[in-house]
Specification:
The chain has 189 residues and is α+β, with helices and mostly antiparallel strands. Helix content is 32%, strand content 19%.
Length: 189
């Protein structure tokens, strides 16, 4: 009886996970051509479901919007986890408590949240290891700023890797940048 129950759980869970990843990709790709302005300004957001205007945002907003499209509000999830485990999160901004207006829009906080949720996948140099819907974090050259994006479902011709959806300054873009920067995190929801 336990084997039957396990088989049913696996039969249902695998398609559900694939459906979530498909919705993550759709949510990320839907921002290309819409989010055209990089805007990192602090803004008062409603809670839950708060967002900056869709034509604006930072790299983390690509991920937050993609997750909302898949039915997960990272503003709420990150805020709740930070409220319960504030000491586990980076202290880069001098805050003494969580701030639901901005915490989910910061790459180090998202990476910490995904790690705490057990969503880490091995960081490799093999494109085939990065699947559509995966979240990737990078360290940019120069001053080492953190960056984040989502693996798309569009393969880069002649390679084993997919293009990324990210916003590095010119709005949401679909580009072959997976290995352009130092990969610091790889997460699968």
């Amino acid at each position: 009886m336990r084997r039957i129950a396990l088989a049913v759980v696996l039969f249902v869970a695998v398609p559900l996970a694939a459906d979530v990843r498909t919705r993550l990709v759709q949510g990320a790709r839907s921002q290309v051509g819409v989010t055209r302005v990089y805007d990192s300004s602090y803004q008062q957001l409603r809670y839950p479901g708060g967002d900056v205007p869709p034509e604006r945002g930072v790299c983390a907003d690509v991920v937050v919007r993609a997750f909302r499209n898949a039915g997960f509000d990272l503003q709420v999830l990150v805020h709740q986890d930070m409220a319960a485990h504030f000491s586990a999160y980076p202290k880069n901004w001098g805050l003494s408590r969580p701030d639901a207006n901005i915490d989910h829009r910061r790459v180090p906080n998202l990476a910490t949240f995904f790690r705490r949720r057990g969503r880490s996948v091995a960081v490799t140099r093999r494109g085939a290891d990065y699947q559509p819907g995966d979240v990737v974090t990078w360290r940019l050259p120069g001053v080492g700023l953190p960056h984040i994006g989502i693996v798309s479902d569009v393969r880069e011709p002649g390679t084993d890797r997919y293009r990324m959806v990210h916003n590095i300054g010119a709005g949401a873009q679909l580009e072959d940048v997976l290995f352009e920067y130092e990969v610091t995190g790889h997460f699968r929801w």
